[in-house]
Amino acid sequence: MDYLWTPWRFQYVSAAPAAECLFCVKAAARQDDEHLVVHRAAHSFVLLNLYPYTSGHLMVAPYAHVATLEEAAEEALAEMMHLARQAEKHLRVLYRPRGLNVGFNIGECAGAGVADHLHMHVLPRWPGDTSFVTTIGETRIVPEDLAVTYEKLSRAFRGS
Question: Do the beta carbons of residue 6 and residue 18 sit within 8 Å?
Fold first, then answer.
């Protein structure tokens, strides 16, 4: 039997539910490198997913703590789409994906890991990036360290 060691996940899977919203904490902290925030705009921000499906997995979230598109301000929604477009551009240049998944999971039963704070996922995809390990072992293999991904994408957003 083979083992794929991911000791950093233990903190996540064994932790009690957070008392505070992780998006609100990251937005307020202003320690962008520590919280993997790659870009800030007027109404929303772009950050790396701490447990990515693929290298370069980004999220775009409004600063306002809202759970649905209906609750979000028009300015924030427009800005989120603009940031998703920028994210697509940067991901295409840096990672050369063959496709992208872009979307919202609104509500817990729709797959939202954080159901009470709206956020959009932007992730690059390649042929074969889901393998037997993902399908059978429910394990993702991400070949790039988050610190490296953070440097690449924060530099790209600063330059745009």
Answer: no
Average pLDDT over residues 25-35: 94
What is the pTM (predicted TM-score) of this model? 0.82
**Which class is domain 16-159?**
alpha beta
CB neighbours (10 Å) of residue 121?
21
Distance CA 134, CA 149 (A): 21
- Can you give the residue ranges of every domain in the chain? 16-159
Residue range 115-130, pLDDT digits in tens: 899 999 999 998 877 6
Q: How far is CA 157 from the centre of its chain?
A: 15
Q: Name residue, tokens 């940031």.
A: 83
Q: Where are the beta strands (DSSP E) in 1-130?
A: 37-40, 44-48, 58-62, 99-104, 120-125
- Residue 104 in 3-state DSSP? strand
Q: Are 114 and 50 in contact (CB under 8 A)?
A: no
45-93 pLDDT, tens per residue? Answer: 999 998 888 889 999 999 999 999 999 999 999 999 999 999 999 999 9
Active site residues: 119
Nearest-5° Cα angle at 138, 136 to 140: 115
